[in-house]
Sequence to fold (196 residues):
Amino acid sequence: MKKESLRQVFLRKRLALPPEEVAWAGERVAELFFSLPAYRQAKTLLLYCAFRQEVPTKRIISASLAEGKLVALPATSREKKEITARLIKVYPDDLVPGPGGIPEPRPTCPSVPPEEIDLVAVPGLVFDLKGYRLGYGWGCYDRFLSRSPALRVGLAYDFQVVEDVGAEPHDQRLHFLITPSRIYRFDEVEVWEKRS
Ligand SMILES: Nc1nc2c(c(=O)[nH]1)N(C=O)[C@@H](CNc1ccc(C(=O)N[C@@H](CCC(=O)O)C(=O)O)cc1)CN2
Ligand SMILES: Nc1ncnc2c1ncn2[C@@H]1O[C@H](COP(=O)(O)OP(=O)(O)OP(=O)(O)O)[C@@H](O)[C@H]1O
Fold:
């Protein structure tokens, strides 16, 4: 299947999920996320604000702030198709609607360079068994991740995992993918562990 039709199919499937399933997935994924040793060690996280039935991240954001971690969320530039990680202190008060209506940090929130982030929670429409993913097609995350040494953790529903998304050379691989039923660990983790 071509990239664009894959995106359409998986976006439609996600939008059709019943609210109970969305909420349950958020609880399970958060629990597994908190169990990662890399989460416990991380000082600075780039999380994201879930929208349009993405796996809910509210608990992950609140718990990370409560534990005293530095929590950044992406602020998106429509022109540059680029994300900037900006630190928030109070959730959701520090957020305003951004492109596509996704809540994002106010422009006055301080930015953090990609080099200083320890762990990135990565959204996506469909993920594969090699650690590749398809997002909305702006390449925002691929560009950001190519500049960051952070551990990359995808968050998804089980139905969003397929064998192969047809990765291209610019696509950045994940280290982990968390779904309600399991944690996928990709080969790249070993490379990351040696580096850090
Ligand atoms: N929760 C969440 N936050 C995220 C992302 C994500 O995938 N999920 N992003 C992942 O990259 C970035 C935002 N990416 C965006 C990509 C496209 C449009 C957008 O408005 N696109 C179309 C309309 C899309 C539609 O409504 O169907 C437009 O240009 O108008 C907005 C944000 C950063 N924040
Ligand atoms: N590191 C990069 N440097 C420059 N351009 C890039 C980079 N990564 C991706 N791009 C460009 O971004 C565009 C979109 O990429 P792609 O279709 O892989 O997006 P995606 O993975 O679905 O989106 P996202 O990463 O925002 O979730 C591509 O045309 C690609 O050329």
The chain has one domain: 3-189. The domain at 3-189 is CATH 3.40.50.10420 (Rossmann fold).
